[in-house]
């Protein structure tokens, strides 16, 4: 059910890439006006782009907590303990605290926050910036369906938003939070292959980007299994099967599975699990 977000105040501690992506999604939804969003960071390095879209900025983390109700923690995982120590005294039971820090568990967040704090853990990815993110969240012990619904409403313009058990959050980090970088690496390598075969780099990169976009949209919108779509591209004895054979020889599948596994394990390690 749609909630009236009315005058809800949204805060971000940390003003980096992920805070910007999520804030943009929230503002694009039109449900929260820029004047009701506040962001903090120690330096001016990243605050300018928020100021430019009318968002309030500060260097004081406790100010963000005081003037907002929904609070995104968007600092690097190792900074989370010191930030929570700094702001805990001004956190109230009405705050809804959403951490996007890779690996940092609900149990850790709840231990570092005042007893009874409402916590959710969210793993977004960078394409939130273009409203094509893939986001998975779970609820802490005090966050209920109302808070989950509010978060969904806020993130509605960021892309696909799913709720799941906390055990899936680190896996989602390996698959999608980090996964966008694997796709960029593949796009880069494909473009380099085209350059090797004689195509100018700028054209090769534009075509590689569109190839990734088109393949992704068709995969999502058709609902078909990737193996089916892959088979659809293959003419017997044609070009694609020769290309796929080269990828199999290079161990692409094992490498991709290993990448998701390695990044998931690293997220678990960051969370001390
Ligand atoms: N990048 C990604 O694709 C994804 C990142 N994440 C998670 O998002 C979180 C943020 O990552 P990302 O946006 O990439 O990081 P960035 O390095 O882009 O941004 C980090 C921000 O934290 C600020 N910061 C540092 N120390 C403090 C402090 N003590 N108080 C307040 N703010 C502080 C920095 O300030 P300043 O501007 O002054 O440098 C900066 O604005 C991480 O926990 C990461 O795990 C999750 C999914 C995807
Ligand atoms: O590399 C990282 O740790 C973060 C989390 C997912 C994407 N970037």
TrEMBL record:
It catalyses: L-proline + NAD(+) = (S)-1-pyrroline-5-carboxylate + NADH + 2 H(+); L-proline + NADP(+) = (S)-1-pyrroline-5-carboxylate + NADPH + 2 H(+). It is found in: Cytoplasm. Signal peptide: none annotated. One of its GO terms (molecular function) is pyrroline-5-carboxylate reductase activity. Residues 166-270 form the Pyrroline-5-carboxylate reductase dimerisation domain. Keywords: Amino-acid biosynthesis, Cytoplasm, NADP, Oxidoreductase, Proline biosynthesis. GO terms for biological process: L-proline biosynthetic process. It comes from the Eukaryota. NADPH binds at residue 61. Residues 9-103 form the Pyrroline-5-carboxylate reductase catalytic N-terminal domain. One of its GO terms (cellular component) is cytoplasm. Pathway: Amino-acid biosynthesis; L-proline biosynthesis; L-proline from L-glutamate 5-semialdehyde: step 1/1. Oxidoreductase that catalyzes the last step in proline biosynthesis, which corresponds to the reduction of pyrroline-5-carboxylate (P5C) to L-proline using NAD(P)H. Proline is synthesized from either glutamate or ornithine; both are converted to P5C, and then to proline via pyrroline-5-carboxylate reductases (PYCRs). PYCR3 is exclusively linked to the biosynthesis of proline from ornithine. Belongs to the pyrroline-5-carboxylate reductase family. Homodecamer; composed of 5 homodimers. This is Pyrroline-5-carboxylate reductase.
């Amino acid at each position: 059910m749609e909630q009236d977000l009315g005058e809800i105040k949204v805060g971000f501690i940390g003003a980096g890439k992920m805070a910007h992506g999520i804030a943009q999604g929230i503002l694009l939804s039109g449900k929260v006006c820029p004047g009701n969003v506040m962001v903090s960071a120690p330096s001016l390095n990243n605050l300018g782009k928020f100021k430019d879209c009318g968002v309030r900025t500060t260097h004081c983390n406790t100010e963000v907590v005081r003037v907002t109700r929904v609070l995104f923690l968007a600092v690097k995982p190792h900074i989370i303990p010191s930030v929570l120590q700094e702001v805990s005294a001004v956190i109230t039971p009405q705050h809804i605290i959403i951490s996007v820090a890779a690996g940092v568990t609900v149990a850790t967040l709840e231990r570092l926050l005042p007893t009874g704090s409402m916590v959710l853990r969210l793993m977004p990815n960078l394409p939130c910036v273009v409203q094509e993110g893939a986001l998975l969240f779970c609820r802490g012990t005090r966050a209920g369906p109302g808070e989950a619904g509010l978060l969904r409403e806020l993130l509605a313009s960021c892309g696909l938003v799913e709720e799941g058990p906390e055990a899936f959050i680190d896996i989602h980090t390996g698959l999608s939070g980090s996964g966008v970088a694997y796709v960029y690496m593949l796009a880069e390598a494909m473009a380099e292959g085209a350059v090797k075969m004689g195509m100018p780099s700028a054209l090769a990169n534009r075509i590689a980007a569109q190839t990734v976009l088109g393949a992704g949209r068709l995969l999502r919108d058709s609902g078909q299994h990737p193996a089916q779509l892959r088979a659809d591209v293959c003419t017997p004895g044609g070009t694609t099967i020769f290309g796929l054979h080269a990828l199999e020889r290079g161990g692409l599948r094992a490498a991709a599975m290993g990448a998701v596994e390695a990044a998931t394990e690293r997220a678990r390690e960051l969370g001390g699990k």
